[in-house]
Amino acid sequence: MKDIVIISSSPRKGGNSDILCDQFMKGALEAGHKVEKIELREKTIHPCLGCGACEGTHRCVQKDDMAAVLDRLVSADVIVMATPVYFYTMSAQIKTLIDRTVPRYTEISGKEFYFIATAADGNEKALERTIDGFRGFTDCLEGVTEKGVLLAPGVWKKGEVTSTAAMDKALSMGRSA
After folding, report:
1. Who contacts 90 (Cβ-Cβ below 8 Å, separation ≥6)?
2. 177: pLDDT confidence band, cut at 50, 70 and 90?
3. pTM summary value
4. Is the dihedral of CA 164, 168, 171, 177 positive or negative?
5. Based on the structure, what is the number of domains in the chain?
6. How far apart are CA 4 and CA 1, in angstroms?
7. pLDDT of residue 59
């Protein structure tokens, strides 16, 4: 049994990337894994101040929800990062989360990662730079393994992803996590 944390950065409850998170979670639960979904829209996470105060303490001076989220990233075996694509990159919510890992990012090691991205643009290639952004983060971590990428292009309106093959792929990825 693996400990899986899913980070949903969709600002819309039931948005397309959020739906794929639920599908991944369903598959992972079917496979007997422990799964927690963290919905960033329900968290208060401020941008990094770049103050450097965390260098000695490994704690951020800001008092918001990030410390608890960072604890989960450090303790999980598997991390799923999901985002809607805005202007050909990840949402501000997940980028803010990534930036705020600075106090303890060296502890996010030996993890398996999955990336999920949804976009209105129908060209799958247009989503690749978003995944490159995630890889920029994981390239700074030790011993991580990218286990899967799910791209769902051509979904704009809330719920459109439910009629695509991405639903089965998310379920399958969760089952094989």
Report:
1. 9, 83, 117, 130, 133, 134
2. very high
3. 0.97
4. negative
5. 1
6. 9
7. 95
Domain limits for position 48: 3-175
- What pLDDT shows up at residue 25? 98
Q: pLDDT-based confidence at 38, cuts 50/70/90? A: very high
Q: What is the CATH number of the domain that holds 101?
A: 3.40.50.360
Q: How many CB atoms lie within 10 A of CB 12?
A: 13
Query: Residue 89 is encoded by which pair of tokens?
Result: 């990159």
